[in-house]
Amino acid sequence: MSDTGAGGDEVIHDAPGFIRVYKSGRVERFLRIDFAPPCTDAATGVSAKDITILPGAGVSARVYLPPAPAGGQQGKLPVLVFFHGGAFCLGSAFDAAAHGHANQLAARAGAIVVSVEYRLAPEHPVPALYGDAWAALQWVAAHAGGQGAEPWLTNHADFGRVHVGGESAGANIAHHAAMRAGAEELGHGVEVSSLVLIHPYFLGGDSSESDEMGMALLDELVRLWPVVCPGTSGCDDPWINPMAERAPSLAGLGCKRALVCVGGKDAMRGRGRLYPEKLIGSGWQGEVEIWEADGQGHGFHLFRPTCAQAEAQVGVVAEFLGRR
């Protein structure tokens, strides 16, 4: 879309109610971030604090620590490095919905959750945020070598159980972080144990089963992709379609387990369903599971966190992370 805004600044992308991008580089975001402060949650007992990962780049995170069990000493806890959604250009780890979801994951899984606040496109075009994700994983791994300064990790983390996950665009980011972990060492003997993809944002393929609302969302995401990733080849770009023919082989995924959660009415559910098939077919030596929320759309758990299917989805993820 091309239009002229105030002062003659040309609009190069306009998604009403979401984001408007100008040729000058100016960006207007219309989805308000409902900031939730870090605190100890009264219902779950999970504590949260904000930390800085890359001071110069503005990459930070909110860390969640579940309470010690009643009458017992807390053992070492798994770590989940998690990435929020938002089509690479919206959202925040500090938004109330993302905060609530991370809090529930920490409580139900008994895990330390590191919810990463990565830099957003188009100010920081793809693939910048993939570098932010890798920096977050390295920050966690550094604590295994005694080089980190966060006591919640040094005192409580089981560095033999470091997982990576995300929802929507964050699931895309988590996938690429796990792929990089298969090609490079994180350091300090830390490896990625498993991958959790919740409603992954992968494009390409047929989405003819989607309803009208789902197709409208999908069309908008396809139109937005070149704005957040200038110079892309389109929906066959391995960044957005890791199952494309020219994408790196999924056999290189750097973990031994994977869980994919999809919504039965999600416009991208076909991509989510295909991922385990392609993973198995690649020769990857690991175990993959898929769970589907019947009749639910993309990101439903953020909008209706107390509905039965949202609670079930959190339970599935928690059970998966809790296995040794």
TrEMBL record:
Name listed for the protein in its UniProt record: Alpha/beta hydrolase fold-3 domain-containing protein
SUPFAM superfamilies, per the entry: alpha/beta-Hydrolases
Domain Alpha/beta hydrolase fold-3: 80-301
A molecular-function term among this protein's GO annotations: hydrolase activity
Superkingdom of this protein's organism: Eukaryota
InterPro entries: AB_hydrolase_3, AB_hydrolase_fold, Carboxylest/Gibb_receptor
PANTHER family: ARYLACETAMIDE DEACETYLASE, CARBOXYLESTERASE 2-RELATED
